[in-house]
Structure to design on (260 residues):
C-alpha cells in the first residue's frame, strides 16, 4: 500500500511544488511507482508537467466533490510517475465542501482505490491552512515540510507543526512528520547559514531535519518551462543529486518501517 506524504508549508515560495516534482521523479528512478496529487488551485505542479490546464475536463476538484474518480483524471508524466492534476476551479472546492459531511476526509476516501497501485503518493498542498490542506493531512501517513532558509519561513514552520499536532489529535492520529527539508539555501549568505543552524538547534531534537539541503539554483526555475523535473533537465546538477539523496533516505526509512 502506498505511503501518502503531504508536502506542506503555509508559506509560499518554500519549495513545495519543486519538492513534489523532484522527489517524485527521484523515487520513480528508484523503480517506485509514484502518484503526484496537485491540491493547489495555482496548479503549478500540473502546469510544470506541461498539461493544458484550461482543457482539463476533470481534475482534483471533481474528485473532492465526488463527481469523478481519481483513476479518471490521471496522466502519465514519465515512467513510474503519474499526476492527478488541478486547475483554478479547485479554488471553489473549499466553499462547496464547507457544509459537507466529513469534509476533511474527501481526499482520504478518494485515494483508497489507488493506494495499492503505488509505492508513494505525494500531495502538493496549497500555501494555506484551509480545507484543502486539512484534507491532505487527513489522508497522509506523514508530512514533509520544505523550509526556505529564511527567518520568517522558519517561524512559519513552528505554526505548521502546531497544526500537525491538532490534526493528529482531532482527525488523523497516525500522522507523523516525515521531516523538515531545508530549501533555497544560499551558502554565500550568513542569514541562510544562521537560519539553518537555528532550525537544527531548535527543532532537531524533536523533529527530523534532513541532512540533505536544497541549494538555491536557477535550474529549478528553468526545468518546469520544459515540462521536465530537474533530474532530467539537469541530471548531474547539485539539485538533482540532492533530491536523489532525499529519495533514498525516505525510501530507506519507509522500508525500515515496513520490516519493523
Amino acid at each position: 500500500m502506498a505511503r501518502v506524504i503531504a508536502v506542506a508549508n503555509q508559506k509560499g515560495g518554500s519549495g513545495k511544488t519543486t519538492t513534489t516534482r523532484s522527489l517524485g521523479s527521484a523515487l520513480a528512478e528508484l523503480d517506485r511507482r509514484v502518484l503526484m496529487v496537485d491540491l493547489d488551485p495555482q496548479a503549478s505542479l500540473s502546469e510544470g508537467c506541461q498539461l493544458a490546464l484550461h482543457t482539463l475536463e476533470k481534475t482534483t476538484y471533481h474528485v473532492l466533490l465526488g463527481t469523478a474518480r481519481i483513476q479518471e483524471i490521471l496522466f502519465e508524466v514519465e515512467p513510474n510517475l503519474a499526476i492527478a492534476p488541478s486547475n483554478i476551479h479547485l479554488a471553489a472546492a473549499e466553499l462547496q465542501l464547507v457544509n459537507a459531511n466529513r469534509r476533511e476526509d474527501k481526499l482520504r476516501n478518494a485515494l483508497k482505490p489507488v493506494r495499492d497501485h503505488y509505492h508513494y503518493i505525494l500531495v502538493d498542498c496549497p500555501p494555506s491552512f484551509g480545507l484543502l490542506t486539512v484534507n491532505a493531512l487527513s489522508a497522509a501517513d506523514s508530512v514533509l515540510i520544505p523550509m526556505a532558509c529564511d527567518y520568517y519561513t522558519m517561524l512559519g514552520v513552528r505554526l505548521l507543526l502546531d497544526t500537525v499536532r491538532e490534526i493528529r489529535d482531532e482527525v488523523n492520529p497516525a500522522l507523523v512528520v516525515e521531516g523538515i527539508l531545508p530549501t533555497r539555501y544560499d551558502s554565500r549568505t550568513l542569514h541562510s547559514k544562521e537560519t539553518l543552524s537555528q532550525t537544527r538547534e531548535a527543532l532537531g531534537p524533536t523533529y527530523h531535519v534532513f541532512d540533505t539541503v536544497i541549494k538555491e539554483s536557477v535550474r529549478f526555475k528553468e526545468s518546469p518551462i520544459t515540462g521536465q523535473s530537474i533530474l532530467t533537465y539537469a541530471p548531474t546538477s547539485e539539485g538533482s543529486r540532492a533530491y536523489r539523496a532525499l529519495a533514498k533516505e525516505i525510501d530507506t526509512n519507509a522500508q525500515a518501517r515496513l520490516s519493523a
